[in-house]
Amino acid sequence: MDTQSLRRLNEARLARRAAILVTDFDDASDHLVFEGERVSAGLDAAIARAFRSGKSGSVEADGKSFFLNVHLPPPRLVVIGAVHISQALAPMAKLAGYDIEIIDPRTAFATPERFPDVTLHADWPENVLQNQPFDAYTAVAAVTHDPKIDDFALKAALDAGCFYVGALGSRKTHAKRVERLTASGVSERRIASIHSPIGLDIGASSPAEIAVAVLGEVINAFRSRGLAEARDEAA
């Protein structure tokens, strides 16, 4: 890797931006490709698959051989609400390879005793996000049932283009949430991307089952990034 590519890759890592170092086996030349960039008709599909899987490997395209070295930011799951679902979800998310954070200003709930070995913010989302903003490699699950806590985080997640945004609540609760987000200036398209009721439809009822459903939905959203756009372009 040349010095310029190394510098750009380090900058991408600091910015939590996904990149792939593409090396041509024929002449050993390499160049960085960032997520969303186009390269060539032959390589584009292989690069898109590599971004989704996070796996490096060799590919054949345009009559040549390349090695794709994938560098993805570690995905993180930020849960708004230090509730029973969050207690079950935190260890599951860790096992699945997600950096997990809990945000809840209610200090009676957001305690180290209830969430050992978890990054815990006993503060309002608007304060936490000033220094640790959401990004495209963040999943956000709002589970407090309290609009004063959830709504700011949901709007911030939609504005940041988080790969997953989910919110706990009934359809009636979500309808009121939609009204509030619309009034705050969020577009209909972005609001429609919220997963609510939250989690895969597996008939979950207990906090642990709901946590499984949420994590499954997060993983599916992460691994299917960009597929909808690809299908639209192919149609």
What proportion of the residues is helical, as a percent range? Answer: 40-55%
Helix vs. strand class: alpha/beta
CATH architecture of the largest domain: 3-Layer(aba) Sandwich
What is the fourth-level CATH superfamily of the largest domain? Answer: NAD(P)-binding Rossmann-like Domain
Proportion in β-strands: 15-25%
Number of helices: 9
The H-and-E topology, N to C, reads as HEEHEEEHEEHEHEHHHH
Strand count, sense and barrel status of the largest sheet are: 5 strands, parallel
How many strand units? 9
Low-confidence stretches: 230-235
Report how far apart the termini are. Answer: 37 Å
Strand order of the largest sheet: 7-6-5-8-9
Q: What is the total domain count?
A: 2
Q: Tell me the name of the CATH class of the largest domain.
A: Alpha Beta
Mean pLDDT: 91
* CATH fold name of the largest domain: Rossmann fold
Give a written overview of the molecule.
- With 235 residues, this protein is an alpha/beta fold.
- The chain has two domains: 69 residues, no CATH class; 148 residues, 3-Layer(aba) Sandwich (Rossmann fold), CATH 3.40.50.720.
- 43% of the residues lie in helices and 20% in strands.
- It is built from nine helices and nine strands.
- A five-stranded parallel β-sheet has the order 7-6-5-8-9, sandwiched between helices. Strands 2-1-4-3 form a four-stranded antiparallel β-sheet, with helices on both faces.
- The radius of gyration is 20 Å and the shape is elongated.
- The two termini are 37 Å apart.
- The relative contact order is 0.11.
